[in-house]
Amino acid sequence: MGFLDMFVVALMPVLKVLLVTAVGLLLAMEKIDLLGPEARNYLNKIVFYVLSPSLLVSNLADTITYNSVVTLWFMPLNILLTFIIGSALGLVLIKITKTPEHLRGIVIGCCSAGNLGNLLLILVPAVCEQSNSPFGDSSTCSTNAVAYASLSMAVAAFYTWSYSYAVVSAYAIKSPEHKSTHSSEEAPDPSSDSCTEALLPSSYSQISEESSVQVELPLTNSGERTKMSFWKKIVQCVKSIMSKIDLKMVFAPSTIAAIIGFIFGIVSPIRKVLIDDSAPLHVIYTSAAFIGEAAIPCMTLIMGANLLKGLKRSEVNLLVIIGVVAVRNIFLPLLGIGVTKAAYHFGMAGSDSLYQFVLMLQYAVPPAFNV
């Protein structure tokens, strides 16, 4: 396959995402106002509580079996590595750019949590459907692609709500400087939304004072902070974060849906009753799958609508934004290639080229929508 053919195969799925995102941006404009703040808020809730869980349950139940879980054991570990490496790069970034205290959690969250779910469900099957796909038979490739992307989405949902949410909460320190800056401004409209609006209702996105963690270094007798090594600081931060993990957020609807989907797919009697084509309760599965099909378009539209406010103004330093882009699109992918090659060398990544492609792709996606 020539370079031009490979470029076209890679371009088509990305172009699809960009077009749907552009539609969301247009619908959010004031002249059209079909995806204004209030509409996005309601659509967020529908996605968070209904569409995304339905997508996870139906895809996992259909594509994940006991044998596939055994075969794909390295993927959860690989996703964990993306979070750990991304967090380390995020810490380096906030040191270099001197990121304001109230934005450090967001920066680390964006560097660590990638869009490992719905974006892979768009990109990987679309690559398989191309006539010049390098992954063999399109039917087999598409089936495997959905299985890989579904497992990636389920594992990433757990890590996002358990790890990334805790990191953002831990760094959500309400500095007096930040408070005074916003108190002097006009009170915002309650229906207005943020350019970083997450795909969850406001009851989940509020971070209470009890859940925020202020990580301080121990003081010497003279009252001065002791100098600690970089790794000791990381260990101290991790301990503080782990002690403040909110189980309510860990077991968000998407996490519960992933657990149910695994059970339905792995347990053979349930699969025969619910999932197989001749199953007596197959209509329940098909109904869930039908609802879940709306999740990806809705999330992509919301992402495009959220971009509108960010394009108008942003309090985030341009250098920080460039740094996050560099971490997610340059440094993480390069490290991901090394990790995947090492995993293949030691026999942990299997022999399926599509599986290895997905493992590398998990290092090369933009930040998760939920961040």
From TrEMBL:
Q: Enumerate the UniProt keywords alphabetically.
A: Auxin signaling pathway, Endoplasmic reticulum, Membrane, Transmembrane, Transmembrane helix, Transport
Indicate how the chain sits in the lipid bilayer: Multi-pass membrane protein
User: Main location per UniProt?
Assistant: endoplasmic reticulum
UniProt key word Cell inner membrane = no
What cellular-component terms does GO give this entry? endoplasmic reticulum membrane
Subcellular localization = Endoplasmic reticulum membrane
Do the record's keywords include Transmembrane helix?
yes
Spell out the InterPro entries in the cross-references: Mem_transp_PIN-like (IPR004776), PILS1/3/4/5/7 (IPR045033)
Give one GO biological process term: endoplasmic reticulum to cytosol auxin transport
Q: Where are the transmembrane segments?
A: 6-30, 73-94, 106-127, 147-173, 249-270, 282-304, 316-337
Q: What are the coiled-coil residue ranges?
A: none
Concerning Pfam families, the annotation shows: Mem_trans
Described purpose of this protein according to its UniProt entry: Involved in cellular auxin homeostasis by regulating auxin metabolism. Regulates intracellular auxin accumulation at the endoplasmic reticulum and thus auxin availability for nuclear auxin signaling.
Family note: Belongs to the auxin efflux carrier (TC 2.A.69.2) family.
User: This protein is called what?
Assistant: Protein PIN-LIKES 3 isoform X3
Q: Which organism is it from?
A: Theobroma cacao (Cacao)
